[in-house]
Amino acid sequence: KSTIRIAVLPGDGIGPEVMAEAEKILSKIMDDDGKTYELIHGDVGGIAIDNHGSALPGSTLDICRNSQAILFGSVGGPKWEGLPPEQQPERAALLPLRKTFGLYANLRPAVIFPQLQDASPLKNEVIGTNFDLLVVRELTGGIYFGEPKGRENDRAFDTLVYTKDEIRRIARVGFETAMKRNRKLCSIDKANVLTSMVMWREVVNEMAGDYPDVSVSHMYVDNAAMQLVKNPGQFDVILCGNMFGDIISDEASMITGSLGMLPSASLADGSFGLYEPSGGSAPDIAGQGIANPIAQILSMGMMLKYSFGMNEAYSRIFAAISKVLDQGFRTGDIMSKGCTRIGTAEMGDKILAAL
Amino acid sequence: KSTIRIAVLPGDGIGPEVMAEAEKILSKIMDDDGKTYELIHGDVGGIAIDNHGSALPGSTLDICRNSQAILFGSVGGPKWEGLPPEQQPERAALLPLRKTFGLYANLRPAVIFPQLQDASPLKNEVIGTNFDLLVVRELTGGIYFGEPKGRENDRAFDTLVYTKDEIRRIARVGFETAMKRNRKLCSIDKANVLTSMVMWREVVNEMAGDYPDVSVSHMYVDNAAMQLVKNPGQFDVILCGNMFGDIISDEASMITGSLGMLPSASLADGSFGLYEPSGGSAPDIAGQGIANPIAQILSMGMMLKYSFGMNEAYSRIFAAISKVLDQGFRTGDIMSKGCTRIGTAEMGDKILAAL
Ligand SMILES: CC(C)[C@H](C(=O)O)[C@@H](O)C(=O)O
Ligand SMILES: CC(C)[C@H](C(=O)O)[C@@H](O)C(=O)O
């Protein structure tokens, strides 16, 4: 029986605290399912800068290379804010990880647990009930990595590049996920201004032929930023390039009102993936034991599903979280009247007990 | 006494309908102020494609060149949607106008009239009262115009370029407007990923030295897209490059809930400017006499203020609109219970009467 090997990179801020809870749940599930597994811990982000002089040290990369998936916490904090931009923990850890492991498909669900319906900044009639959308973001191309990129005297530049192949493979992920959901795909571009986005739209349209059951629409990114606020329920799967996906997925997360609840997956071809919460390292509340571990736990759940095919385990985690919310337990960020406020570890324990 | 010459380009969809109302008010104000003025009408957008084979014909450009300001309606509609992207009315009319006349500073106020407080998709406690922000967007540079831009086989690219001078002049507009408002400027960038945006941030920081009274902050664009939804009241003046400004200003407009109320100004050095509503040509309601003319009227007001130094005229228009809203008159888009629904021309007449 082969051993499942997972790289665990807790990072900075609340990362280690919420990761501890995700590991508790992970152990229980693996044991229940009779799996042999190994968690290999590595430093990443600010703590790796402090300990090894780099946000993504070679030793950590080696751990990742020897694993089948990466469970990532979050990185960054005020301590490292003075560093030059290219050495900042977030960028210097995440971008090379994405590129090295070919993690081109970023899945970011924006859902509202019915128990947290009131948390959205949007009016109830605007957000509706059962709000549930998925952003599929291209993660290893576009203006993030395009060459040339540089600075000459008083002129600085970046290049937004896409090839048809890059667009095809992320669009395929968009169409495939749409098939598993409500068969509705909205592709975001700026084809009225950008040459690369004209091609983006063409490729998506070409591929639509392979998916006659998916209803495809196109929206300019400025309009999408508006429509998400005006009528978010119109979307099911949103497909974006790297930069637009960065903006649109964050906006979508925030309209749920519970950023601390949202996981994300960054997938390569095959089964390798990196899984991390959508929120950040929240240095303001780090070390107090009050952070919400649910996003980290759900990210771990996504890992079980996408990297290890354990769909049932994912559902089990999801159901346990839902049960604990039904019981009225809340961390501070999702607290509401009549509920019981609990800390990070207690939340982990409750979910463990509810599995 | 010199004659004020204004190019009037109503365009498509609701453009001509709302423009007619703006012209009514304009005439009254000019007459009251004893100004000699000339309005020179030209075709632009889809109608110009139909009549002259181009969204921005030479004759229209000539009209603009012979004027001191451009009052612009809105362009585009389903009739022209089949055209190749670079011939689409919006792009083919607006981008060359901006570039030809050096309209580098786009001012987009996002305000909520107290009478329309409930229109926001955001909860009352989130949007607050007196919501009032101004987006200052760079409009003639960045990835919209950067070279090279093109396509080679299966690879397409665009270039995001900024020079220090380009950043300086738009940042100056940002700082100057902040000085006239609440002395709070938030500059949006993506300095953690883009080389051009590292320089953007540097230049803004350098210039901050000239404005010790302005409190300056920096925010990544993804975070800004979130913060606008989470806590929009934290912003006063937002400074952005062209692409980010496109997205962020639209998002900001929509959170007011009254896009049909919002004007915009696109300014060159000196007093030349183009003024247009923030919303589009709304082909779905064109020709029915029900469109809201207020954004067009306010755009005209901004023209009087910025191109002709008629600050008082602007305030007079603003006050008249406020009075009509107080009287309970509303077009369909801003209708609410207990108010009286009126059409485009009636709204124009009421505002005229309230001047
Ligand atoms: C930290 C930053 C480089 C990163 C990005 O822009 O992709 C982050 O915002 C994200 O969305 O994961
Ligand atoms: C029509 C389009 C080219 C334009 C832009 O992207 O600038 C529009 O969205 C705007 O904001 O004025």
UniProtKB/TrEMBL annotation, chains A, B:
This is 3-isopropylmalate dehydrogenase. One of its GO terms (molecular function) is 3-isopropylmalate dehydrogenase activity. Keywords: Amino-acid biosynthesis, Branched-chain amino acid biosynthesis, Cytoplasm, Leucine biosynthesis, Magnesium, Manganese, Metal-binding, NAD, Oxidoreductase. Mg(2+) binds at residues 222, 246, 250. The keyword Metal-binding applies. Belongs to the isocitrate and isopropylmalate dehydrogenases family. LeuB type 1 subfamily. One of its GO terms (biological process) is L-leucine biosynthetic process. The keyword Oxidoreductase applies. InterPro entries: IsoCit/isopropylmalate_DH_CS, IsoPropMal-DH-like_dom, Isopropylmalate_DH. Homodimer. It catalyses: (2R,3S)-3-isopropylmalate + NAD(+) = 4-methyl-2-oxopentanoate + CO2 + NADH. Binds 1 Mg(2+) or Mn(2+) ion per subunit. It comes from Salinispira pacifica. Catalyzes the oxidation of 3-carboxy-2-hydroxy-4-methylpentanoate (3-isopropylmalate) to 3-carboxy-4-methyl-2-oxopentanoate. The product decarboxylates to 4-methyl-2 oxopentanoate. Its cofactor is Mg(2+); Mn(2+). Substrate binds at residues 98, 108, 137, 222. Gene3D superfamilies: Isopropylmalate Dehydrogenase (3.40.718.10). It is found in: Cytoplasm. The record marks 144, 190 as: Important for catalysis. Its EC number is 1.1.1.85. GO terms for cellular component: cytosol. NAD(+) binds at residues 77-90, 280-292. Pathway: Amino-acid biosynthesis; L-leucine biosynthesis; L-leucine from 3-methyl-2-oxobutanoate: step 3/4. Residues 5-351 form the Isopropylmalate dehydrogenase-like domain.
